[in-house]
Amino acid sequence: MNAFDVWVSIVLLVVSTLVTRSGFFLFGHAVKLPPKLQHALGYAPAAAMAAIILPDLVTTNGAIDINWANPKLLAGIGGGVFFLVTRHLLGTIVAGMALFTVLRLAL
Amino acid sequence: MNKETDAGDSRPDPVVNVANAGAPAAAAVLSARRIEKEAFQEGWRASASTIPAVAAWGVVSGMAMVKSGMTLWQSLAMTLTVYAGSAQFAVLPLLAAHTPLIVIFLTAMIVNLRFVIFSAAVAPHFAHLPWYRRVWYGYFNGDISMGFFPRRFPAHTVHQPAGKIGFFEAICYPGWFAWQIGAIVGILLASQIPESWNIGFAGTLALIAITIPMIINRAALAGVVVSGAVAVAAISLPYRLGLLLAVVIGMAAAMVADKFIDKEKE
């Protein structure tokens, strides 16, 4: 990506932060989202996260790689289980990276 | 609820305290300052334990930016202004893959959508402030503040401003500094770390840890499973359109699941 596009992307990301975070602070009294839309929007973030996470876990260098020798897939599952048990963000990153590194060297 | 309620009280349900009701103006200003100061200390005690994780995640974000091919100045500008970790993590692979700017923007908007929900919950508490202060506080209203603020100031306290600014600043500003210091360390360290360590994977692990608490019910779980499956199935679509497709179908799946679950209850 050329430098100009990266800078434009940064500006677009700032706009996105401001619109989503400050939008209601500015115009909250004037906007009333329909309850059904609000309800649906509540599920969007988790769906977006899943759509980012899963493709990363099941690919190696851009190609689909769903099998037990894929260290990212195994370490991702391991990290998820670790978080479910401990509810610890930093611990999940450390444990997941440790598992990933062991698997990467072993498999 | 009484307007004179002492919101500097440490319990979620403020105890009515009318002792200061008739105090002179000067004393009132002094005591208002004291209330905000005490609220700040309370907010700091509540959220301080998140600081190491925020800083560590900042380090990961800094490394991920440089590893995705951004320059030092681009990475610094991005972290200091954007201040939205999950949107940054989501967009970095898109930047590296020469994705059209509109898809980058839409992806950031979708990942940031949860902030709309957050700000709808927190904004009414600051409605009495001038617009530039509302924008300022809105900018800091991220995942951490959402974890602490509504628990301390539930919806029914919306007309009692006392203590809110102090508490909010305490749960936001230290986190901002921890994140930025972490990110700058990460940006500077990135070149020292070999590619094969795959340090960007730490970002995916962080996303996993943020996503799990978002799965609040079976409908949300359905949305996550369907969205993830669609994203993988559509992985070869150009411009990462699979991501947008996955979110829309995932949201629809969650709504359908909600209907079925409601019927089950009837």
What does this structure look like?
The complex is a heterodimer of chains A (107) and B (266). Chain A is mainly alpha-helical and 107 residues long. Chain A folds into 2 domains: 1-32; 43-106, no CATH class. Chain A has helices spanning 3-27, 35-41, 44-57, 71-86, 89-106; strands at 59-60, 63-64. A two-stranded antiparallel ribbon of chain A has the order 1-2. The model of chain A has no long low-confidence stretch (mean pLDDT 89). Chain B has helices at residues 25-47, 51-67, 72-82, 85-96, 101-122, 131-139, 143-152, 164-189, 201-214, 218-233, 241-265. The relative contact order of chain B is 0.15. The chains are: A mainly alpha (107), B mainly alpha (266). Chains A and B meet through α1, α2, α3, α4 and α5 of A and α2, α3, α4, α5 and α6 of B.
**What's the number of structural domains of chain B?**
2
Oligomerization category of the chains in this entry: heterodimer
Mean pLDDT of chain A: 89
Structural class of chain A: mainly alpha
Helical element count of chain A?
A: 5
What is the H/E order of chain B? HHHHHHHHHHH
Low-pLDDT parts of chain A are none
What value does the average pLDDT of chain B take?
85
Total beta strands of chain A: 2
Major sheet characteristics of chain B? none
Main sheet properties of chain A: 2 strands, antiparallel
What key attributes describe this structure?
heterodimer; A: 107 residues; mainly alpha; two-stranded antiparallel ribbon; 5 helices; 2 strands; extended; B: 266 residues; disordered N terminus
